[in-house]
Design goal:
Blueprint: H1 13-29, H2 36-43, E1 55-57, E2 62-64, E3 71-73, H3 86-90, H4 92-115
Antiparallel strand pairs: 1-2, 2-3
Length: 116
């Protein structure tokens, strides 16, 4: 049993349908058939806001930045058994976590552009 703790989120039914569409694409195509930029994103171990290396937490299920507090699901696409990661990518909570990470990445890029 996982040591991760969980909360319940209310998600509008339309968003739940979107999660199912994305999950089905992942499961149908498989991680190994995803575009290289998506693989790089999924495998990233750096904080999208401050670019610091994130630490592996919660029984190796979550990366967490101790600087910003951002968390991201661990998805190891470089393993010899890609199929082992598919249930993780296919989980609704994992997809929500990746969506939050993606939004943080865009916000981090905007923030970095303003600094230069």
């Amino acid at each position: 049993m996982s040591s991760a703790s969980y909360v319940t989120l209310k998600v509008p039914k339309d968003f739940e349908k979107s999660i199912d569409v994305v999950r089905n694409i992942f499961l149908r195509k498989g991680i190994e058939n995803m575009p290289p930029n998506l693989k790089k994103y999924l495998n990233s171990k750096h904080c999208p806001l401050c670019n610091k290396k994130m630490d592996n937490q919660k029984a190796k299920l979550i990366y967490r930045c101790h600087e910003c507090g951002i968390s991201k699901p661990v998805i190891d696409i470089d393993t010899s058994s890609i199929d082992d990661s598919l249930p993780l990518v296919g989980g609704k909570g994992t997809l929500v976590g990746l969506g939050i990470y993606a939004l943080a990445k865009v916000l981090g890029e905007i923030n970095n552009e303003r600094r230069t």
